[in-house]
Structures are given as C-alpha cells and as structure tokens.
Amino acid sequence: MCPTHAQSHTDTVTRAALVEVLADEVVVDVACGKSHTLFLTDKGDVFSCGSDVYGQCGRGRASESVLSPVRAQLPSGIAQVSAGIDYSMALGHDGRLYAFGYPANGRLGCGTDGS
C-alpha cells in the first residue's frame, strides 16, 4: 500500500511500498499476469489481487477487480504459482495442479475453450 493512502487504491505507485495486508506473511514467490498478481507464502497459501474478470484470482467467483490481496480458494500446501495474461495455475506439493481463469484455446487443461 502506498504510504500516503490509508486504504486500497488504484493510483500508480512510483516508489517501492510495503504491501501491508501481507506484512505478517512470509512471501516466497510472486507471479504476475497482465493485470493480476499471485503471492505464495511459506505456509503454501496463495493470496491474489488485481483484475478478476475471468476468475484468475482464484476466489471462486469472477469480479471486476480485487484491490487488496485476499486468500485464494486453494488448499494449503501450494508449492509454486504461475500467472498468464488472464489465467493462473498453482502446483501443490502433492503434484496436483489447479488452473483458473480464462480457458481460451484449452489452455487450462480443463476440457473447455470458454466458447
């Protein structure tokens, strides 16, 4: 969060600023899509924010945008995250792969192309 703002905002931030919502978490990986970001913690939890028009933030429903990082609806134990233009993937320590967001051209591997 930008130090001059008391709450979430959509202003451009030109200096590094603490993401206060995640200040108590140990973030071990970050993945950035076109307009959304995934944060992976040392506990294997995933937080996300940004555009969620196609459900790419993994909250279980699509919405216009998520202004502040929220926990994605994924099981704990995620080992790695990846973000595409408008979709995301999360790999569990158990080898299970979770895909969410826009499925164009079958890119999520879920058997649909979104048409």
Description:
The protein is mostly beta strands and 115 residues long. The chain has a domain at 25-101: Thrombin, subunit H, CATH 2.40.10. Helices cover 0% and strands 39% of the residues. It has no helices and seven strands. The protein has strands at 27-32, 36-41, 46-52, 63-71, 78-83, 87-92, 97-101. The chain has a four-stranded antiparallel beta sheet, with no helix packed on it. A hairpin with a 3-residue loop joins strand 5 and strand 6. The radius of gyration is 14 Å and the shape is globular. The termini are far apart. Residues 1-6 have low confidence and may be disordered.
Under CATH at level 1, the class of the domain at 25-101 stands as Mainly Beta
Unreliable residue runs: 1-6
Spatially, the strands of the biggest sheet line up as: 1-2-3-4
* Rg from alpha-carbon coordinates: 14 Å
* Total of helices: 0
**What is the CA-CA span between the terminal residues?**
37 Å
Blueprint of the fold:
Blueprint: E1 27-32, E2 36-41, E3 46-52, E4 63-71, E5 78-83, E6 87-92, E7 97-101
Antiparallel strand pairs: 1-2, 2-3, 3-4, 5-6, 6-7
Short account of what is shown:
This protein is an all-beta fold and 115 residues long.
What brief labels describe this structure?
115 residues; 39% strand; 0% helix
